[in-house]
Design goal:
The protein has helices spanning 4-15, 39-52, 77-93, 99-110, 129-145, 147-180, 229-244, 246-259, 267-284, 305-318, 324-332, and strands spanning 33-36, 189-194, 202-205, 217-221. By secondary structure, it is mainly α. Bound molecules: zinc ion.
């Protein structure tokens, strides 16, 4: 099992590259996202989630409160044995801390592969034979009992989100590209929909120049209420922000080093939460409360020093009153972080 440090390293790689001069930029296209509902990606996420459901001494995934998303009591004895054998593979290999590594490696191998039984994924360096076999062995059980419902839920989610995305995407993309100063992909961003995306409900991989292993891919939960409706719009663009936060992340590190100060770990991710929430409020109206600032999200409390500093030092940049560099210098100088 890999350590937290390696998870953070992967997150930094995914989000941390500086902009490249040759990166393609674009005007937002008419359909900025391509939504997908793939059998094998769904099965993989369900097995991941089920293997991580909390048990004594183990908190499990945050998304959906760690509740089961399949009814194992609907299975025959033979199906139960088959399903449990596949779950055992996931249980032995994945934790809430190493999931991101595996997302990055395996998801591309599971996309666009037609459903069982006519199609099955090939073993690759990212999807080893034992993992592939555990998916193939669970596939008939998933097909017989769970896929129809999951596919219907996923497609209904896409249908509900499409009008919101079409109404707001162009505005959000322009706003976020201006805030982060990095380009989005020149082609529509692929978004895979699955019932669960442990541990948080959404995940993004990719970075400029968005080719080969750097291709942009967002995976979103169709069942997690944090990704539905207006909140879903904010969280979709939270995920998009992961693609283009690299310059801000690098500037935060450099400013802290220059000033000899220490920032809270992963402050760049708090910047994403704050920014996506507040630009969503700009777009959706003052009554819209940013996701991270709702008590139910348990992310920023009202007296959280990160929130206090971002309001004071980052909001003026969002309002156009200062430059990104000055805002980041002010964040790095915040006395709240050196207490
Ligand atoms: Zn995030």
């Amino acid at each position: 099992m890999r350590s937290l440090a390696s998870v953070i390293a992967v997150a930094l790689i995914a989000c941390g590259a500086p902009p490249r001069a040759s990166s393609p930029s674009r005007e937002p296209p008419a359909a900025p996202f391509r939504f997908h509902v793939d059998f094998w990606a769904n099965l993989n996420q369900v097995l991941l989630h089920e293997a991580l459901v909390p048990r004594p001494g183990f908190a499990g995934p945050k998304s959906l409160g760690g509740q089961h998303v399949v009814r194992a009591d609907a299975l025959s004895a033979e199906e139960t044995a088959r399903w449990q054998a596949s779950l055992a593979y996931y249980d032995a290999h994945f934790t809430t801390r190493n999931l991101f590594d595996h997302f990055i490696e395996s998801m591309p191998a599971l996309l666009g592969v037609g459903p069982w039984p006519s199609q099955r994924p090939a073993a690759t360096s990212a999807l080893d034979e034992e993992w592939r076999r555990s998916l193939v062995d669970a596939a008939p059980v998933y097909q017989a009992h769970f896929w129809t419902d999951d596919e219907r839920t996923d497609r209904a989610y896409v249908e509900r989100m499409q009008p919101l995305v079409l109404a707001h995407a162009e505005w959000f993309e322009k706003r976020l590209v201006a805030v982060y100063g990095m380009p989005l992909p020149a082609t529509p961003i692929d978004v895979e929909i699955t019932p669960v995306v442990p541990p948080y409900g959404g995940f993004t991989q990719g970075e400029p120049p968005y080719d080969g292993p750097n291709a942009a891919l967002i995976t979103l939960s169709s069942r997690d209420p944090s990704y539905a409706g207006d909140t879903g719009v904010e969280m979709l663009f939270h995920e998009v922000s992961h693609l283009i936060v690299g310059r801000v992340e690098k500037a935060l590190d450099e400013a802290a080093k220059r000033q000899g100060t220490k920032l809270p770990p992963r402050l760049w991710h708090d910047v994403i939460f704050y920014t996506a929430g507040h630009v969503a409020q700009e777009r959706l109206g003052a009554a819209y409360i940013p996701f991270a600032e709702r008590p139910s999200a348990r992310l920023f409390s009202a007296d959280d020093p990160r929130l206090i500093v971002l309001r004071r030092a980052w909001q003026p940049y969002l309002d156009g009153h200062t430059t990104m560099e000055s805002a980041i210098d002010a964040i790095a100088a915040a006395p709240e972080f050196s207490r």
